[in-house]
Design brief:
The chain is of the alpha/beta class. It has 11 helices and 12 strands. The model has no long low-confidence stretch (mean pLDDT 88).
Length: 336
C-alpha cells in the first residue's frame, strides 16, 4: 500500500517549511499567492489528501455579533445580518447566529457555535475588542472572515465600508455649499471606523485650507461606548456638523432643537450609514449610504472560497457607497 503523502513530504519537495505548506493548503495568510499556487499544484501532483478535505461540510456558517450592537431588524447590524443570511442562502449555506456577550468578549471565550463541528466557517460582524479579535484569529482552525471590522496593524480578511472617503465627500459637499466652520461629532478613540471617518473629515478641511479648531471635535459616547443623550449644549460658532452615524445625527438635531435652533435653517447636519429604524428618521438626514448588500456578498463569497481552499481576495476590502441628499443641509452661498 502506498505511503500517505504528508505536509513534510510536500515541504521537502517545494523547499519550504511545514508551516508554509499548512498555511497554503488551509487558505490562511502568511504565504504569497505565487507560492500558494505552487504548493497546491505539487500537493495535487503528489496525491496529497488532507483530513479537512475528506471531512464533509455542514453547510452552516457561524455569524458572531456583539450583543450590544444587535437589535434584530431595527438596528444597522440587524439589517446587515439579514443581508449576510440572504447571501449565504443564495450560495447554498445557512447562517447560525450567536450573540457575543460582553463577558465572553472580555474573557476571550471561543464562540459556542464553533464546538462539535457545527459550522464550516465563521463571520465576525461588527467592531470587537482588539484582544478578542487577535484571540479568535489565533485560536480557531476554521476559516474566518470579518465584516465591518477593522483593526490597524492586524492582518484580517475583512470587508468594510469606505468611512474615510465617505466623510471626505460629505465634508466637501458642505464646503461647496458655503460652510466653513464644520464640527465632527464622534468619539474618535472608541472604534477604528469612527476614527477613519474623522480623518476623512480632516482631510477635506485641510485640502480646502480650512484651519481645524480642537473644539470642533465633539464626543458622542460615554465610557461604555453607548451614545449620549445630550451630545451638545451650545453650538458655539459652528455652522455645520459631520456626524459619524445617523443615530448621532438624530440626537444632535434634537439637542439643537431643544436649544431653540432649527435644522437646516440655522445649522446643516449630515450623518453616515443612511440607516435609522423605520419611523425614527423624522428629520430625513442627509447621509452617506453604506452598500450593505454588496458588503455582505463580498464577505460571504470570500469566506466560501477560503473554506474550499480556492484563491480569494485576502486582507481588507473596502466597499464604497454614495451621498443621499435629504432635508438637513442648506446652502450658505449667497443667491441659493
Amino acid at each position: 500500500m502506498a505511503k500517505d503523502v504528508t505536509l513534510a513530504d510536500i515541504a521537502a519537495k517545494v523547499g519550504v517549511s511545514n508551516v508554509a505548506v499548512s498555511k497554503a493548503l488551509s487558505g490562511k495568510q502568511g504565504v504569497s499567492d505565487e507560492l500558494r499556487v505552487k504548493i497546491k499544484t505539487i500537493a495535487d501532483e503528489m496525491g496529497y489528501v488532507s483530513n479537512t478535505t475528506s471531512k464533509p461540510e455542514t453547510g452552516n456558517i457561524g455569524v458572531i455579533i456583539p450583543e450590544n450592537y444587535y437589535g434584530f431588524s431595527i438596528s444597522f447590524y440587524g439589517q446587515l445580518y439579514e443581508k449576510v443570511v440572504r447571501a449565504l442562502y443564495d450560495n447554498q449555506y445557512f447562517g447560525i447566529l450567536e450573540l457575543l456577550t460582553n463577558e465572553d468578549e472580555k474573557a476571550g471565550n471561543i464562540p459556542k457555535v464553533m464546538q462539535d463541528g457545527k459550522v464550516d466557517g465563521l463571520i465576525f460582524l461588527g467592531q470587537m475588542d482588539e484582544r478578542y479579535i487577535i484571540n479568535m484569529v489565533k485560536q480557531t482552525e476554521l476559516p474566518v472572515f470579518f465584516l465591518d471590522t477593522y483593526v490597524p496593524f492586524i492582518e484580517l480578511d475583512t470587508v468594510i465600508s469606505d468611512g474615510y472617503y465617505g466623510t471626505y465627500q460629505l465634508t466637501n459637499y458642505l464646503i461647496e455649499l458655503g460652510h466653513r466652520k464644520i464640527g465632527y461629532v464622534g468619539s474618535v478613540d472608541v472604534t477604528s471606523s469612527i476614527a477613519d471617518r474623522y480623518w476623512g473629515y480632516r482631510h477635506s478641511l485641510r485640502e480646502n485650507r480650512i484651519a481645524f479648531e480642537p473644539e470642533w471635535e465633539i464626543p458622542d459616547r460615554g465610557e461604555n461606548g453607548k451614545l449620549l443623550e445630550k451630545i451638545l449644549e451650545e453650538p458655539g460658532d459652528l455652522d455645520a456638523f459631520v456626524c459619524n452615524c445617523d443615530g448621532t445625527a438624530q440626537i444632535l438635531i434634537r439637542n439643537l432643537e431643544e436649544a431653540g435652533y432649527r435644522v437646516p435653517e440655522d445649522f446643516s447636519v449630515v450623518g453616515f450609514d443612511n440607516f435609522l429604524p423605520i419611523g425614527m428618521n423624522e428629520h430625513q438626514i442627509t447621509s452617506y449610504e453604506v452598500d450593505m448588500e454588496r458588503m455582505a456578498e463580498m464577505c460571504v463569497k470570500g469566506l466560501i472560497k477560503k473554506i474550499k481552499h480556492k484563491k480569494y481576495d485576502s486582507g481588507i476590502q473596502i466597499i464604497t457607497g454614495r451621498i443621499v441628499k435629504k432635508k438637513t443641509v442648506k446652502s450658505r452661498n449667497k443667491g441659493n
